[in-house]
Design goal:
Two copies of one chain form a homodimer. Chain A has 370 residues and is an alpha/beta fold. Chain A has one domain: 3-Layer(aba) Sandwich (Isopropylmalate Dehydrogenase). Helices cover 42% and strands 14% of the residues of chain A. The first copy, chain A, contains twelve helices and eleven strands. Chain A has helices at residues 22-34, 72-78, 83-92, 105-116, 153-169, 192-202, 232-257, 261-280, 307-322, 325-336, 340-348, 354-357, and strands at 10-14, 38-43, 57-61, 98-101, 126-131, 140-143, 177-181, 208-213, 227-229, 289-292, 297-300. An eleven-stranded mixed beta sheet of chain A has the order 3-2-1-4-11-10-5-6-9-7-8, with helices on both faces. The longest helix of chain A has 26 residues, at 232-257. The first copy, chain A, starts with 9 loop residues before the first strand and ends in a 13-residue tail after the last helix.
Chain lengths: 370, 370
């Protein structure tokens, strides 16, 4: 895969973050490399030895990892040798084009924010996931799923623009339809936050605003919405609720299929067809979440990714580079004028420091893509 | 079914609120009456004519209904002849013991609040649903699912007590385990609202606080939690997300079973076993939501209830009367001391008027039980 400049795209991958270890990383990176993506793998050279012989893959020796239980801001600041910090720095230095990590979500977001910085006039980066909708061709992009625990209406408006730009540039959706997650379709339904954001979005000409959607519309096959915007707390709870519900229903189908011999025979006959359903709702299929609003590409994979999940994280990162996602987002944000009022206000009062722009400390651990 | 005083329990039922009309109301009320519950049915005597001959059932002539699209506070105030207003007044006057309605959720909540009033020191009533967990014996009680769009930490603490009291008295759970919905298990995860509520609940001895749960834990068969507390916005979004996800996965299984002849044979063999799954996640099975915190019993059914849903709404209302749910909730709230600080503060500043205690106007239309 080629960068807009014509050179091969290189992704910095934090191998130490993968819970599955080398058994998952080696085949995953190999699959991505077979697609023509160069990968700089931050991890243990001895454990990742088989990767050394693959064209375009380079293992950068690194043994230090930031765990899920560490306070992200302190850990990223205090441990410059940690794999995620070094991988992010690699992108900032221009040695890689994009960052992908299945490690601690908080640490990945923090390291990416510190190293890559925000796009001018973007107040808060947002974490976006592609919700796989069984039976629907294109996934629904939902953001924020946990980069910010609390949000202001102006943040939600920016999330709408960030999501729209990503959907158009990377997912190939022409003029994406953007909706707000609420508890009713009417403009006045929801919290004050949602009502204010609705009003602002309804008056925006830069994006195609579809109004409010409800929780039950998210996985609607016939849904006409491409991007769903919400605050990071609600988005994270919803993402995990979808995962939990799909899992519970799936297990119940499994139990039903074991309940008696006739059902068991039925289950066996049905199994191959259900397999494709399982893969269509598997978070590995979409490669995890992407942190939008930065001056670089950062993909936040699921810690429990399998090989396919690892490969897809790297593929998503490379595709975002190839499609100039960051540049196109910058253009859209600039054109839309979102953030200008905030910027004027910021001239008087100091802006939120980048250190607190991601709620890495008190915020959620979104376990993106889950 | 007998009230604590020994007399037969009478439920006021708003028949005009049922979308399915008499076809649903007649068999539903009949089934409830067969369980020994007396029902005063507010609706059209000619349409409900077959109910006239059933022992214990009385049709109260009423032709006026408040629709889903009406602003609840204005409608309830301005239309004393509407079925839900009259049914609620019937309970307040002592002619019925409890209210059940499958009509407009906003109008039902508002009419119930105006007629029945709040329990002393309860700041906000909350709407609670029983989440049917496939494979688990007892449902999980989640509240608030939409009575209040915004909440303060003190409200969440009260919701915990209201939910605990209902779970113990009506659902028969001994010392219910109560959790907060958040984005991580740690006490500091989540919005400031959740963090503050966590701290207050952790220090409470009146309930058994289990800490935070995440979205994926809600339908966990092995879950050790009986009551999940959240604000009305999040609860409503989550409830509808569960419904939408279960529906999407269910449809996908159906599509898989039609995808080829082998799968079709499998689907047919599996169908009987899947039927019990469907009924176990059917919102009709739990009879809808219940408005907690009032000095009377009010059950808010699903508008699209079938006959079983109607019968279960009435059964839940009657059971709450038989089990003295309101009295036991009052005792628990009093014993816990929750709300005392608020009451002292209220002596200086006027309390929130009952008229605004349910966000019926700008708030959600929770379509309870869905």
């Amino acid at each position: 895969m080629r960068a807009p400049g014509g050179e091969r795209i290189t992704v910095a991958f934090d191998a130490l973050g993968a819970e599955g270890g080398p058994d998952v990383v080696i085949p995953g990176v190999r699959a991505a490399a077979e697609d023509g993506i160069a990968v700089r793998v931050f991890g243990s050279p001895s454990a990742l030895e088989p990767l050394g012989s693959i064209d375009g893959v380079e293992v950068v020796a690194c043994e230090e990892v930031i765990g899920n239980d560490e306070e992200p801001v302190r850990a990223v600041r205090g441990r410059p040798g940690a794999s995620i910090v070094r991988a992010a720095a690699d992108v900032a230095a221009g040695d890689s084009h994009a960052l992908a990590s299945p490690g601690s979500t908080g640490a990945t977001m923090t390291a990416a924010l510190f190293a890559l910085k925000r796009i001018r006039s973007v107040q808060r980066p947002a974490l976006a996931v592609q919700l796989p909708v069984p039976g629907r061709e294109s996934p629904v992009l939902m953001l924020d799923v946990g980069a910010n625990t609390e949000a202001r209406a102006s943040h939600l408006v920016q999330f709408a623009h960030l999501g729209s730009a990503f959907s158009e540039s990377v997912l190939g959706v022409e003029r994406p339809r953007v909706a707000l997650l609420s508890i009713g379709e009417e403009a006045k339904k929801g919290t004050q936050l949602v009502v204010d954001a609705h009003e602002a979005l309804a008056g925006s000409s830069a994006i195609d605003f579809a109004g409010n959607v409800e929780g039950r519309d998210l996985l609607e096959v016939e849904g006409e919405v491409d991007v769903v915007v919400t605050d990071g707390f609600t988005g994270n709870v919803v993402l995990k609720t979808i995962e939990g519900t799909a899992g519970a229903v799936g297990s119940a189908v499994g139990r039903a299929a074991r309940s008696n011999p006739m059902a068991m025979a039925g289950g066996l006959l049905l199994k191959p067809a259900l397999g494709s359903l399982r893969s269509s709702i598997d978070p590995d299929g979409t490669g995890g979440a992407i942190l939008l609003g930065l001056r670089g590409v950062a993909v936040v994979g699921h810690g429990s990714s399998g090989p396919e999940g690892v490969a897809n994280q790297i593929r998503v990162a490379a595709r975002a580079v190839a499609e100039r996602a960051v540049e196109r987002t910058e253009e859209l944000i600039k054109r839309s004028g979102v953030g200008r009022a905030e910027q004027r206000r910021s001239a008087a009062a100091p802006t939120v420091a980048d250190e607190t722009a991601v709620d890495a400390g008190s915020g959620g651990e979104p376990e993106a893509g889950s």
